[in-house]
Structure formats: structure tokens, C-alpha cells
Amino acid sequence: MQLNSNRMVCLVFLFAFIGGPIHAADAESPVTIGATVSLEGKYREPSDMIHKAYKFWADKINRGGGLLGRQVKLILYNDKSDDDLTRQYYGKLIEEDKVDLVFSPYSTPLTLAASEVTEQHGMLMLAVAAASKQPWKNGPRYLFQMYAPADRQFIGLLDLMARQNLMTLSVIYDDASDYNVSTVHGIGEWADTFDIKIVFQEAYRDGRRELPGLLKDVKTTGAGALILSAYSPDCYELLRLLGEMNYRPPVLAMPIAPIHPDFQKNAGDMANRVFSPSQWEPDKRIPFPGTRRFDEEFTQFAGRRPSYHAASAFSACQILKMAVSDTKSINNKVLRDYIASLDTVTVLGRFKVDYSGKQVGHNSFVIQWQNGKKEIVWPKKMQTAEPLF
Fold it and tell me: Each residue of 216-248: b (16+ CB within 10 Å) or e?
């Protein structure tokens, strides 16, 4: 496979174990693991967390002796948030670089693109950042979901709204991504359950061009809540526009961007009271084993606290290590069969998939930014603060 060298940015990280006695296994070839990360484009912000988590895990595992006594070598390419480039690079990783294993990219669209290649080659892939069901529609055998599904991510917020008697909702979303489509489909189903009326719902493709007009329409509805389902750039654009309009409904929510540690820094005062679904938070009230240690060690390694994107990537690494250690194999079919029947708990939470590989064990919760800090506001048992409206 030939790739335009001007379009390709390759990052190869070899983490060597330094110190301690030299064993025979040290002389063996490393276990090579390949993936793409988005160093550019609309997925750059969350993908940066996944990128750092892969590097953090590789460093940690190599300092502990590697996998099956062999060092781990990461081969990571910059997919630039592009589907076609992702397909090319996963083909290169498998056919030219001859990697032993693969990790997934960020996002539903890129995971779908990567899985089209990995499935052809029978390569196991734990999808660290794909909440939509789309990648599983064609019955892949080697693809497993880490996240709680997109259509269940706003249950908590709708529950909170119903309890506050906020019974009208506007929804706008970027329908270029199946993640957003799935999210909105779930919002509709659960709004019916809570008797919340969706008074305005519109899709768009070009946020900078279309969001101003959509927000004017939303304002006329007088709805008690607005949910935007989109990736980070459009989330920040929405907040900027709301500030210019001096308009804000009692409930404002969006996925992805608000869970990032830099959200307050990037959004300014508009960040206050924004709700978001979250898969995980670096908080002592998260009841999953290893949360505090992961938070501390990742922060020291990366220079910033982890988001749930980092936790999901690290958890996928935990599962892979468990599978390799228990089966004493890096054979992808052997690992696939092991993970398909696994029911365990990682830093992210419970991991259990159904017969198709979709996640059924893990659930998301709701955070809200309050006075410059993320607080868990739903469910009650994990709450660090009461929600503000």
C-alpha cells in the first residue's frame, strides 16, 4: 500500500524498560500495537486524551516487564480526523508494519472506518470511543464496545428535568455523525418516557453557517432546555453565539466538550451550569478500583488530569493485558474469544458485552460545571453537588 508521504505523519513510540536484570525474554522482539490518533481536525481535543493514555499505559506496562515478558512498541499515525486516512493507516499497520495487535481511533466514524479493515484481517479491536451502534450493524466479530451506548447517555439529564418540572426541550444536532443521530434518537425515546415534549428538533451539517439561525428559532420556542449533540468545535461555537445573543435556557447540555478538563478555560463564563453525560470522572466518589491511582499517575505523566476518554483508552489496555496474561497468547482469535465472554470491572467501570460486541455492563452519568468545577449531579448515589438550574 502506497501513501502520500506529504499527508502522513507517523509517530512511533518505543518504550524501553530500563534497569533491573536482563532476561532472555528481553532479547525477543517487542509486541507491536498500532492505532491512529487525531492530532488535527475536529476530533483533536478528545483524541489527545486517548493518545496520552496509550502512551501512559505502554510506559507503565514496559516498566513492569511488558506483555508475556516482551516490551510493547506503539506505532501511532495521525489520521487528521479523516475517515479515508484512517482506513489507509490501519491497512498499513496490518499489511506493512505487521503489528501484532491494534487499538482503536477516537469517534464512531473513525472506529467504523478502522473496523472495516481490522475485521477483514481478523484483528481484535476494543472501541475506546464509539458510543453509536453503527459500527456493529454489519455483525463484526472482533469489535467490542467500551462506552455506554449513545442512545442512553441523556437519561439522567431528562430525569433531572422531569423532577424540576422542566417539560419542554429543543434539540439540534450535527447529523454527519451517527453518534449524534443515535444520541438524538435516544433523547426522543426517553423524553417520551418522562413526558417531556420536544418542541423543536433540527439537524445541520455546517455549524458556523447554520447554528445562528437555528438558535434564533430555538429562542422563539421558550423551551426549558436545549441539547446540542455535536463534537467540540460546534459546542464552543454554540456557547459563543449564546453569549452574543444574551440568551440561555434554564437547561443547557451537550456531550463531549464539557467533560474535558479545559472546558472552563476554553468556554469562559458560558461554561457555568452546562450539563453533559460522562462515562467516568477522576473523582474519589467513583466506585471503580484503581480510579484514584490512575488519576494521580496519569496526571503526573501527562501534565493534566484525565477525561473519560483517557480512562476508556486505559481501561481497554487493562482488558487487553488481562486477556493476554490469562490466555498467555497474542493470537487475535484467542483474545477475541476470551473478551467476548468477559465480565469484569476496570477503571472505567463494568465491562460486559452482548453477543454482538455492544456494551451492556457500563452506564454513563451526568456532570455539570459549577463555579469552575465539574460536579457529578446524577445519579444521586454518586452526587458531588446538587444540580443548578
Answer: eebbeeebbbbbbbbbbbbbbbbbebbeeeeeb
